[in-house]
Design a protein that fits this description.
- The complex is a heterodimer of chains A (313) and B (438).
- Chain A has 313 residues and is α+β, with helices and mostly antiparallel strands.
- Chain A contains seven helices and 14 strands.
- In chain A, helix 2 runs antiparallel to helix 5.
- Chain B has 14 helices and twelve strands.
- The chains are: A alpha+beta (313), B alpha+beta (438).
- At the A-B interface, helix 2 of A face helix 1 of B.
Chain lengths: 313, 438
């Protein structure tokens, strides 16, 4: 990644940093592994940087959208899956969060929720601008949460879609977290598994295959060995892989404005199986899906993700 | 009391531009292509959430895993997921047969609405293992002991591992379709000049129709392609005349080979769809009927022992269709004769003009006669557009229906059109359509 300019805006304290291109994930993750980033943990009163990262005129590549659609089990459509927009903007957000003045360690962040609001369809080959910001720092029983907001704009300046990812930065002892630390048993939302409508069998290479189409090579997703290095017993599926797969199977009319809400609970271990249950709204305006891993013996079923897709007009 | 049979109406169509094999649709599957064609149809006719009577579709080059190709494609569109679907197959006549199937169901009152469609991708055609390897592997899977398994697998020879692409030819004669047609062209004395002229007309007509916006409500762009990739609007007789013959060059019966890449269709990728319904359904949805399906016939010839040319079955099916509807060949206003090869169209026309053929082969009193060539493939056909096998019938039906409706609205007169499609294995399917005016 390289910056071509930094300019202050007279109307606000926010600065905009223009990148010449969408940064590459490996470069961002390498920056995140920089030992200097460890110092961030010590900060008592974290402040989010007031800066927007912007990349202008990014083409949505047809081949990439096709590979994404195929991985999700759907047809290669000319109207772009919003998951493609997410992976397009994600490295820009990450680059912002890898900054030295960003208060949290990038690799310890937990993706809690994701919300996409898409106002109009995007076609493969379209050129868009991408802007990423971080905002809304909040206290949380396990640390702090904040939002990474990506805005996708058309060449007419209109907002096409907004993608809001909510992350948890754990307060202390973030390293060596196991899945069960992520949500202590007594505080978990109660979960009663519905009747499953499907069962996903996810092979060990699921994370590598998603990394190939999304570019997200976060080591916790790639192999058991690389995941162990970051405190996970096994590789875990990318949250946005599970969410995007649900989206594809939601039979969405991509020509309409829509909202795509995702919340993540227990991680999906690889290899592994996830049960899913779809629940369509009778009017055909919304689809709800929950995914969980089945319980066995003393272990009760654990909800892994919940997805809502709503058509907006 | 049921009032059947009733009219089956063509209400519109949508296809994606056809691409040459290995072109912009490389890496794209049959399901992708068919979903794109159906998605465009749904958008154009506002069928989001609509539960249709049936969707009939198919592909010629089909992967074993695509057994429910049409249903799987439909499930990827905003149509009501409770719309049933059926996969059908009859080589190049596939989507003409799906139109007939949906038409018959509507006429009989079994359904009120439906989509006929077809798709093919030569870029993503199935590649199989050799039959010997397949049987060895099945023996190994079925083995009860490790020794049996090792014994089965140890019989694999290096030659068994070669992949097997789809066969390009007739299994019973060993000749490719082009080689067969070269024999027919030589038999009928079809000249190189006549073939190149037909090919040129196809390109010129298709280009003009695109320029006039004729395809604006028949074609939806896909993967950056807005027009058929094979279309050469700047083609000339000189350019076509400079191409080397590719078929018939090894046949002793062909003294002067005439068939080139320019007057034969290329391997193509694409998908087409046709929306059909009863009159009541059309009114309910506020759709304008373009044409009605009057009748259809199919025929087959014995090409295996040389009794007839491989692609000549439509020459037999059309007279039968005309007789059944008390029409002469000259009563038609539009002729859509699929240009598998330019010489296929010309051989068929020559047969109908031949006293001898019509007397001895068709058992008629005399020739059917010549047609007014200005009514033939007036907006171009397969030589220019390309020919994704199972998508061609749907392209022809949607195109002809629009032509009939347009002309009927202009003239106030009922217009009739013929579609004739030849198919592998010596088969042919023909359909008669009639205009429905505004």
């Amino acid at each position: 990644m390289s910056a071509v300019q930094s300019s202050g805006s007279p109307a606000s304290a926010e600065r905009i940093k223009d990148l010449t291109d969408v940064p590459s994930f490996p470069a961002v993750y390498a920056a995140a592994l920089d030992p200097r980033s460890a110092r961030r943990r010590a900060r008592k009163d974290p402040v989010l940087p007031r800066i927007a990262y912007r990349v202008r005129a990014v083409r949505i590549e047809a081949e990439r959208a096709r590979d994404f659609d195929h991985l999700m089990g759907g047809p290669a459509t000319d109207l772009v899956h919003p998951g493609v927009l997410h992976v397009l903007t994600f490295p820009v957000s990450l680059a912002l969060m890898a900054r030295q003045d960003f208060p949290f360690a990038l690799l310890g962040l937990v993706h809690l929720r994701n919300q996409v609001l898409q106002h109009r369809p995007v076609r493969v080959g379209d050129i868009v601008d991408v802007e990423c910001r971080v905002r809304d720092l909040q206290g949380h029983r396990k640390g702090r949460t904040f939002e990474a907001v990506s805005t996708i704009l058309g060449q007419d300046g209109e907002i096409i879609a907004t993608d809001v990812s909510t992350y948890l930065a754990k307060a202390a002892g973030g390293e060596g977290d196991t899945e069960d630390d992520a949500a202590p048993r007594q505080e978990r939302r109660p979960f009663e598994a519905p009747r499953p409508t499907g069962r996903w069998t996810l092979p060990a290479d699921t994370g590598r295959r998603y990394a190939a189409v999304s570019g997200d090579v976060n080591p916790i997703h790639l192999s058991a060995l690389s995941a162990k290095a970051f405190g996970f017993p096994r590789a875990i599926a990318h949250g946005m892989y599970t969410a995007s797969r649900v989206f594809t199977e939601s039979r969405v009319d991509l020509s309409r404005p829509l909202r795509w809400d995702v919340s993540f609970d227990a991680p999906v271990m690889l290899p592994g199986a996830v049960l899913v249950a779809y629940d369509d709204d009778r009017s055909g305006q919304s689809v709800h899906c929950v995914g969980w891993r089945s319980g066995s013996g003393q272990k009760s079923p654990r909800r892994c993700f919940e997805v809502d897709v709503t058509m907006l007009g | 009391m049921n009032d059947f049979p009733r009219d089956a109406l063509i209400l519109g169509g949508n296809r994606i531009p056809f691409a040459r094999s290995g072109g912009p649709y490389a890496g794209i599957s049959n399901q992708d292509l068919l979903t794109a064609a159906l998605d465009g149809l749904v958008a154009r006719y506002q069928l989001q959430g609509a539960k249709l009577g049936e969707i009939a579709g198919g592909a010629v080059l089909k992967l074993a895993g695509d057994l429910n190709l049409t249903r799987e494609s439909a499930l990827g569109t905003p149509l009501d997921p409770r719309t049933p679907a059926i996969d059908m197959s009859k080589a190049c006549a596939t989507s003409l047969e799906t139109v007939i199937h949906v038409s018959n169901r509507i006429q009989l009152g079994q359904i009120d609405s439906g989509i006929a469609c077809g798709v093919d991708s030569a870029s993503d055609s199935p590649i199989e293992v050799t039959p010997r390897l397949r049987r060895i592997l099945h023996r190994a899977f079925a083995a009860k002991t490790a020794m049996q398994r090792i014994k089965a697998l140890s019989s694999i020879r290096p030659a068994d591992l070669a992949p097997v692409p789809p066969r390009n030819g007739e299994p019973r004669t060993g000749l490719s379709m082009g080689e067969h047609q070269a024999l027919t062209a030589a038999q009928w004395g079809i000249t190189r000049q006549a073939q190149d002229e037909l090919a040129l007309a196809s390109h010129q007509h298709l280009a003009a129709a695109y320029d006039e916006g004729f395809f604006d409500d028949l074609v939806t762009g896909y993967r950056g392609l807005a027009r058929d990739q094979n279309l050469r609007s700047d083609s000339t007789l000189e350019k076509l005349g400079s191409l080397k013959p590719v078929y018939g060059v090894k046949s002793p019966q062909v003294t002067e080979p005439t068939m080139t890449a320019g007057n034969s269709t290329p391997l193509s990728d694409g998908a087409s769809s046709v929306l059909m319904g009863s009159e009541e359904w059309a009114v309910e949805r506020g759709l304008t009927p373009l044409a009605r399906v009057v009748d259809a016939r199919s025929a087959a010839v014995d090409f295996v022992h040389g009794d007839e040319g491989l692609l000549m079955a439509p020459a037999y099916a059309v007279p039968e269709l005309l007789d059944a509807n008390a029409l002469t060949l000259q009563d038609l206003d539009f002729y859509e004769i699929h240009e598998a090869f330019a010489s296929t169209v010309l051989s068929t026309l020559a047969a109908w003009e031949s006293e001898e053929f019509c007397r001895t082969k068709l058992g008629r009193g005399g020739a059917l006669g010549a047609i007014d060539r200005s009514k033939l493939n007036v907006v171009g056909s397969s030589l220019a557009a390309g020919h994704p096998f199972a998508a061609t019938g749907g392209r022809l039906v949607a195109t002809l229906s629009k032509l009939l409706h347009q002309r009927a609205t202009e003239t106030g007169l009922v217009q009739r059109g013929l579609i004739s499609v030849c198919a592998a294995a010596g088969q042919g399917t023909v359909v008669l359509l009639e205009s429905v005016a505004d």
